[in-house]
Write a structure and sequence with these properties.
CATH architecture of the largest domain: Alpha-Beta Barrel
Strand content: 15-25%
Number of helices: 18
Strand order of the largest sheet: 1-2-3-12-13-14-15-16
Number of domains: 3
Distance between the termini: 31 Å
Length: 484
């Protein structure tokens, strides 16, 4: 069973969607990649979900990607002696290193490195930004602040510090354990949370050792400011609008989202737009008009994937949420204006043989009646370049490696096929023709564009583009009009 939209859907699994029937229904409704949120549940529970995904993958006969999302270094307050307290504008409040329960005037902050990094006038946000304070004075082991926006403060609420690059380890001990677990399990992507600098990604890459690709979640202002080095060090980017929206002006988010999508597209790395895309569907079978426009906007901008979080993990209507997102994707991609917008926003360079070949394949597809672009790839690099071009015809990505096929499910427009290894170009064309027919993209009277590299089975050698017939007999006979 294949889903012929271009944008990918990333669905989070959780209490509402961890049984076999629901996971299969999500895949059939349009989910291409499943997210395992390592912030919730234990490793045994994640393993059970992973094994179900792989069983369903085999049943459906198509690669399914798995992303393991690490919790990251979350900053939380200590506890309070008498339950929640209400802070009012103008109140003074202290964060300190005293581990006794807090009250209406102070609370323990179990992060001495944070106390050391805070400076006068720094902004402190509590409980997803609902309470806002500004640092007044810094003392030995304590910080005094004034409340700017009041609200309730209670046990272990999260803290955000938008003005500060924190001297925190990129990976907590829990993250390191979860990372190794996810790699041994076979996760295709590892998502890093609360990244502040490129060095955070490099540390994770050293631990992963090539066993998975790295998806960096951009959710800190420092990551936005230092985005180019972060993009260079990452295999993909997630625009995580939850914490980013807490730490930055909400009115800045649309422009940031568009810029990050554009920058990722330019270098051919997948970009995922996440957080609150269909939030109302946690408890409603019907989304709001604004949510539909939000999902559509990300697709019009050329995002590789859109993500569901609580909607599919803990909501009342997980399958309906995926189905809704899938319908929006199909409608947008059928809109003639969508193709105009995608073509107008294509402005990357062709600085290698591989980029020139994939660009030429897209131009050929636009100029003549070619039903699909087929690319053979070992590492996925050639397919990623084809995806970057955003062609108007389907892209069939063939690889002999199941791991590569699963990783490519994150990329716009790629229909991934695990194929046999081939030694000759003619056999590659035959494999491409068979895969294209099996997917329903073409018949014997049609033609396809095929890209590959000679010598075969050597990564990074894409150097051939052929326009070939789909009919196998014509391929064997070298039909002149077929261009083989």
């Amino acid at each position: 069973m294949r889903d012929f939209k271009n944008v990918k859907i990333l669905a989070t699994l959780g209490p509402s969607s961890e049984d076999r029937g629901t996971i299969r229904a999500l895949a059939e409704a349009g989910a291409d990649v499943f997210r395992l949120n390592m912030s919730h549940g234990d490793q045994d529970g994640q393993r059970a979900k992973y094994e179900l995904i792989r069983e369903i993958e085999q049943e459906l006969g198509r690669p399914i990607g798995v992303l393991a999302d690490l919790q990251g270094p979350k900053i939380r307050l200590g506890t309070f002696a008498d339950g929640p307290h209400e802070l009012s504008e103008g109140d003074r409040f202290r964060f300190d290193s005293d581990d006794t329960p807090g009250d209406a005037t102070r609370v323990y902050l179990p992060h001495p490195e944070v106390l050391g990094a805070l400076e006068k006038d720094a902004t402190i946000l509590i409980n997803d930004g609902k309470v806002r304070l500004t640092v007044l004075e810094k003392h030995d082991g304590a910080v005094d602040a004034v409340v700017k926006v009041g609200g309730e403060i209670s046990d272990r609420k999260g803290m955000n510090l938008p003005d500060v690059v924190l001297p925190l380890a990129a990976l907590s001990e829990k993250d390191r354990s979860d990372l190794e677990f996810a790699c041994e399990l076979g996760a295709d992507w590892i998502a890093l949370s609360f990244v502040q600098r490129a060095a955070d990604i490099e540390e994770a890459q050293e631990l992963i050792k090539g066993r998975a690709l790295v998806m960096t979640k951009v959710e800190k202002p420092s990551a936005v400011m230092d985005f180019q080095p972060i993009l260079d060090a990452s295999d993909g980017i997630m625009v995580a609008r939850g914490d980013l929206g807490v730490e930055m002006e909400l009115s800045d988010l649309p422009a940031i989202q568009k810029r990050l999508i554009r920058d990722c597209r330019d270098v051919g790395k997948p970009v995922v737009v996440a957080t609150q895309m269909l939030e109302s569907m946690i408890h409603s079978p019907v989304p709001t008009r604004a949510e539909i426009s939000d999902v559509a906007g990300a697709i019009y901008d050329g995002a590789d994937a859109v993500m569901l979080s609580a909607e599919s993990a803990a909501g009342d209507y997980p399958v309906e949420a995926v189905s809704t997102m899938n319908r929006v994707a199909r409608k947008v991609e059928d809109d003639p204006e969508y193709r105009k917008m995608i073509d107008a926003s294509r402005h990357h360079t062709r600085n290698s043989i591989a980029t020139a070949i994939t660009s030429a394949a897209r131009e050929v597809a636009d100029a003549v009646d070619v039903k699909a672009i087929c690319c053979f790839t070992h590492s996925g690099a050639t397919a990623r370049l084809a995806s970057r071009e955003r062609p108007s015809v389907p892209i069939v990505a063939l690889t002999p490696f199941r791991k590569t096929a699963r990783q490519m499910t994150m990329h716009w427009g790629l229909h991934c096929v695990v194929s046999e290894s081939v030694e000759r170009f003619k056999m590659a064309v035959i494999s491409a023709a068979r895969a294209t027919k099996a997917l329903g993209f073409a018949g014997d009277d049609d033609r396809i564009a095929v890209t590959a590299g000679v010598p075969f089975n050597k990564p990074g050698t894409t150097n051939i583009l052929r326009i070939a017939p789909v009919d196998e007999q014509a391929i064997y006979e070298g039909e002149p009009s077929g261009g083989y």
